Amino acid sequence: MNGSTQSPEHKPDFGACDSRIRFAANLKWLFTDMPFLERFEAAATEGFSAVEYASPYEYDPAVLTRELKRWKLKQVLINTPAGEPGTAGSNGYGCLPGYVDVFRDGVDRAIACADALGCGLIHLLAGRVPDGCAPSDADAAFRANLSWAAKRAAGRDVTFVLECLNQHDVPGYFLRSLSHARTFIREVGASNVKLLFDVYHAGMSGVDARAEFAEHRHDIAHIQVADVPGRHEPGSGGMPWSEIARAVADSGYAGWIGCEYRPLATTAAGLGWRKDFWRAAEARRHTAD
Questions:
Q1: Average pLDDT over every residue of 42-62
Q2: 14: in domain
Q3: What is the pLDDT of residues 265-280, one digit of tens each?
Q4: By C-alpha distance, which of 246, 243, 173, 182 is closest to 204?
Q5: Is 212 among the residues known to form the active site?
Q6: Is CB count within 10 Å lower at the N or C end of the chain?
Q7: Does residue 7 lie within any of the structural domains?
Q8: Catalytic residue (one of 52, 212, 233, 260)
Q9: For the segment 278-289, what is each residue's pLDDT rounded down to a tens digit?
Q10: Which CATH number characterizes residue 130's domain?
């Protein structure tokens, strides 16, 4: 990738894109120069066929469903509810001992909302380990909560995904690595619990994003992207995006790639980076042929 975030002269030919390389606009981060409900139209205008965002809970599901249908968009990801900033559950309740009822109520809300929106993925927020909490207590709380959530959603068309957040941005976050998260997936043994691979958090954690993706590929159900440093669009920082794109394309990944970044300028001006992924997919297709 050349590092430029300027908009291409012409919009990408979406009809020619490999169907396995699919991007979802994160409406919390993109198109923030307009009211939230207007971002659905903006996403569709820029060629997105799907959206994601952390919290749908401030809106009537019928309102969100209306916008999804109006602009022919798919809702692919929401989060479980989090507490207010500065509170114990500001990053979720999964690992917090003593918050079982709050956690379960949140999971039920998330499942109901996902059902209403036709959304197949729920990011189950693990939360920060409380001050003074023994690691073994946080482990036990998270394991029990995750097991309960997996059983609660059994038989529904929804999968929980676990994400590790870097300790620079979110110090004390319970899930520190994908390997750590995968340990709980193996222990719970439920088919409806997978991984969310975030390239930004991998980069900020100092790990090789390509190696991390390759090691955990078969457990990954969703990808999110942003560059390091700055959390701006791919191509704005130092991550090897051409190589990452090839790794994703060569793996046969068929899920969505969430665009969870802070645009340097306007959202539309920074969307040219997607071509790297499409080129990688085309190269793989020609090699296979």
A1: 98
A2: no
A3: 999 999 999 988 888 8
A4: 173
A5: no
A6: C
A7: no
A8: 260
A9: 888 787 766 765
A10: 3.20.20.150
